[in-house]
Amino acid sequence: VLCQLRERAIDRKGADLEDDESFHTSGCVPLNPLRQRFGMGPCTIEVSELELRIPGNPLVTDGFCVGFQRGDSSLMKTRAVAGTCRIVASYSCISFTEVFRTTVNSLDSVCTFSMHDQESHLHDVVARAELPVRILTKMAAQAQGFARIDLSWEDARQCCNEQQATYEPQPYLALRVRTF
């Protein structure tokens, strides 16, 4: 029955649905929306309302920025807004207004969030976190898309993989992540 319907659709429109990637072999079901719904197809991720929280209560202003990168794509960086640094508990909080959008094609892609020291001449990465895209899209699906991403300090001392005896607070990002 489906094959007969498909043949009639081809006769009416004069088009061959076999050449159209967006249709299933039955000629009735578009694949791209299904792929997106199940997390298999291209998806646009938007990261916004970034707030960097740095432990130790140093009142920092524009010395740090946040980097966002998908896989091997180019690094996108923020700029701190003047007067947005404030103290919350034992953290300095810096807000950013940039909105990052990227299209992901694979569940295996990784997104990297990094904290950069703008005052160093090398613009060193101070802390970072790498998240699989599937985790980021799950975060977007939860309660209004607000999330916390813990960053790990980038330190030459940590290259030895030694566990530190004392607990050292980690910086983190509070942000909003959405999918389209």
Helix-strand category: alpha+beta
Radius of gyration (CA) equals: 22 Å
Q: How large is the count of helical segments?
A: 3
- SSE arrangement, N to C: HHEEEEEEEEHEEE
* Net shape: elongated
**Global mean pLDDT:** 75
Poorly predicted regions: 12-25, 156-161
Helix content: 10-25%
Terminal Cα span: 35 Å
Give the tally of β-strands. 11
DSSP strand content: 35-45%
Largest sheet: 6 strands, antiparallel
Short description:
Helices cover 16% and strands 37% of the residues. By secondary structure, the chain is of the alpha+beta class. It has helices at residues 2-13, 31-37, 133-141, and strands spanning 43-55, 64-70, 76-77, 86-88, 91-95, 100-104, 110-117, 125-132, 146-150, 152-153, 172-179.
